[in-house]
Specification:
5-stranded antiparallel sheet
């Protein structure tokens, strides 16, 4: 499915609504991206599509950051959409502030994870174990917002 909307929320909603319509069941969709403060939010909502490979995306990012003083403040943003047939789609947002650093690969992670440092932890997302990344990530924040909303409990008709 093309991710051609201008916001994370709209892209996540498109995915969730398409899946819900196809299956006739509740569905989740997500969209996320990296926003670098000094680059006016680049790469943003097009994070995964600015180049064909992870290496090319990293190169483009660092080319744009050449000559920009550090720290390179950034944030990961996630929109998690819940589409339920016959109901309005609900969107839950999560953010994780951090910094862009030279690549620090680790045992997990993908995309911009090797270049995104969480200062409170002192490691990039790629250097974290998956359960630790879940605690700190933008997707974890959005998922906890969804769970706290009671929206899932309402699906079984008891809420």
């Amino acid at each position: 499915m093309p991710e051609d909307a201008d916001t994370y929320a709209a892209n996540a909603s498109l995915k969730a609504e398409a899946a819900a319509a196809a299956g006739g069941l509740p569905a989740l969709g997500d969209d996320s991206g990296l926003e670098v403060e000094a680059l006016d939010g680049y790469p943003g909502v097009r994070s995964a599509r600015v180049a064909a490979t992870q290496d090319e995306r990293h190169r483009l990012l660092f080319d744009r950051l050449a000559g920009v003083p550090r720290p390179w403040r950034a944030r990961f943003v996630c929109a998690l959409a819940l589409a339920v047939p016959g109901r309005p789609t609900r969107v839950f947002l999560g953010e994780r502030p951090g910094e862009v650093v030279e690549s620090r690969p680790g045992p997990s992670g993908f995309g911009y994870d090797p270049v995104f440092l969480v200062p409170e932890v002192g490691r990039t997302f790629a250097e974290m174990a998956l359960d630790e990344k879940d605690l700190w990530s933008h997707r974890g924040v959005a998922t906890r917002a969804l769970l706290a909303s009671g929206a899932l409990a309402a699906l079984d008709g008891s809420a």
